[in-house]
Amino acid sequence: MTVPLGRRVAAAALSVVIALASASAEALAASASASGSPSSPSATTAGGEVRGLRVPAERGAPAFDAFLGIPYAKPPLGPLRYKFPKPAQPWDGVRDATADPPACAQINDRSATKEVVGQEDCLYLNVYRPEGAEALPVVVVVPDGGLLLASGRMDHFGPHFLVAQRVVVVSVNYRTGPFGFLSLDSDEIPGNAGLKDIVAALRWVKTNIAAFGVDPSKTTVLSWSSGASLVHILSLLRKPRELFSRAVLLSGHGISPRAYTERHLERAAVVAEALGAPSNGSHQEVRRALMEASAEALLRACDDPRVRLLGLPLPSPERRNTKGAEPKLLRQDPESLLRQPEAPPLPVLMGLAGREGSFPYKIWGLGERTPGALDELLPRLLPADVLPGADTAGQLGLTGTLGPGPLPKDASLRLAQLVRDEYAAGGAIGNNTDTFIEFLGDAFLYASAWRAVGFMANASTEAAPLYLCRMAVDDAYNYGKKKYGVVTEGASHGDDIGYLGRSDRDPELNQNLSGGGVASKTLILMTKIVGNFAKGLAPIEGWPAVPSVGEVQSWPVLQVGPGSRRHVEHADGKRQPFWASVYRDLRSASSTISRS
């Protein structure tokens, strides 16, 4: 968990080694041996009774009850493929809830052959409760994999360490990729199905979670990367905002460059073409191709180079004027909602990794390119959100064809030179790996994060504070680095997840609350931070919230690591004035730039 926010400027008091962590681990291990729940726990939901299983104490974490594969919506099959999810049908008798549900249909990112896994009938969730649960808070985990891969299965994100903090955990499956975000903005393919799945899951939680020993008014939603973008967007919408009370956003937010598109019709048409529909086909031809294709064919089509070049399906606006029954969810671009909120603010814990840029540097294969080639790529690596969406443009009094997307060639070349001037004194930015990774981190996430934090801080109140955290630990449980083979020094994108959830798909992590080393102590600290936040407490004593006014350099940030230390210091924000000027200049009324 973390924020783009880097080097120590003025360390505030609070440089504390987590010496208490070892004692905490011993206490957790002691509580793990206590077992008063039956081996076949049950609960009664609005849909019927479910019978789960007892997960034994292990690796310093206590035993807990698990209820797996509870349906929260009807299977989205046939005409429901892209629709707002319908409520699940109740069942007779006792439903077996002892087996992990299938993931939603997706391409296995760990398979060299890109095999398709999961299925379209996938709208299930898991509930995990500690022993003796009564009026506890709940943490709803919305998993992420770039809006292409996500699974709420226990072997993907194990709740073991969060449950040790005396919170109930819910993990959710939701539609991703073409099933979750393709859009024709029509009643047949309205768009944003993945967002709507999360809303349906939160409605299920609000209605049913009390049966598992939870106070429904204490619902925190936690996600990371693109999933955090989805959660942030939902927090800005009036009706979804009523379904949860707090949010933990890790390495993602609603105005990040890969959180939203207004090119949804174009993207849907290219996917249909990859499926065999005519080039420049009619609306009906595109609709037919997207509705009739098999799940595997749709996934393969989204892996087509033509689709990847244009961009994968993302959340998009629903502006249709039809009078059909399909409800609209996201009616305007997320930045416009941040600027003029329709929902009251909620407490937010927001974090980024110390070196977010290491992730795109690795997965985009940039480390294999020469410095000259990297410099030539620079215009294509600029943040896509420099240009505003249509609704934000209206608020700013701008006209023209706008919307998140690539700049025209002449504008991108000019901005690329400004980047060289800022980061490399006018030279080739690819000559220095550390400098290039710093730029990537800013373009990938930090520049937009500074802007998001500014909007959120202005809206924050004493009852709805905003906390910032920066993960700098580089140790055994850094999930993102282990999964993607990132070798550069420092905490990378997704690393904090290894200090919150157990990943049985990555046994080499071997996460353990009672391990005693830096990684185990950080695991205890991170789960404690989230547990305290979910309970409505200060995440860590002495960690102040971001003030509602002030420059980026005044924002207090909890720095986690290295060496398992934690302290509060002010945000660096060294590059923030540069990016602020870029956004301001390209969005001024005198600017002639519009998206090509």
Explain this structure to me?
With 596 residues, the chain is of the alpha/beta class. The chain has a domain at 16-263 and 311-365 and 464-543: Alpha/Beta hydrolase fold, catalytic domain (Rossmann fold). It has 19 helices and 17 strands. The chain has helices spanning 20-32, 160-163, 177-181, 193-208, 225-235, 238-241, 264-274, 283-292, 295-302, 305-310, 334-339, 358-363, 371-377, 390-396, 409-424, 433-459, 479-484, 518-534, 576-586; strands spanning 16-17, 42-45, 48-51, 53-55, 64-71, 94-96, 106-107, 116-117, 124-130, 136-142, 168-172, 214-224, 246-250, 348-353, 466-471, 556-560, 565-570. The strands form 3 sheets. It has a 12-stranded mixed beta sheet with strand order 1-17-16-15-14-13-12-10-11-9-5-4, with helices on both faces. The chain has a 3-stranded mixed beta sheet with strand order 2-3-6, with no helix packed on it. A two-stranded antiparallel sheet has the order 7-8. A hairpin with an 8-residue loop joins strand 7 and strand 8. Helix 1 (20-32) packs across helix 18 and helix 7 crosses helix 8 (283-292). The two termini are 36 Å apart. The model is unreliable at 1-37 (pLDDT under 50).
Topology:
Elements: E1 16-17, H1 20-32, E2 42-45, E3 48-51, E4 53-55, E5 64-71, E6 94-96, E7 106-107, E8 116-117, E9 124-130, E10 136-142, H2 160-163, E11 168-172, H3 177-181, H4 193-208, E12 214-224, H5 225-235, H6 238-241, E13 246-250, H7 264-274, H8 283-292, H9 295-302, H10 305-310, H11 334-339, E14 348-353, H12 358-363, H13 371-377, H14 390-396, H15 409-424, H16 433-459, E15 466-471, H17 479-484, H18 518-534, E16 556-560, E17 565-570, H19 576-586
Parallel strand pairs: 3-6, 10-11, 10-12, 12-13, 13-14, 14-15, 15-16
Antiparallel strand pairs: 1-17, 2-3, 4-5, 5-9, 7-8, 9-11, 16-17
Helix pairs in contact: 1-18, 7-8
Organism: Frankliniella occidentalis
Keywords: Glycoprotein, Signal
Pfam families: COesterase (PF00135)
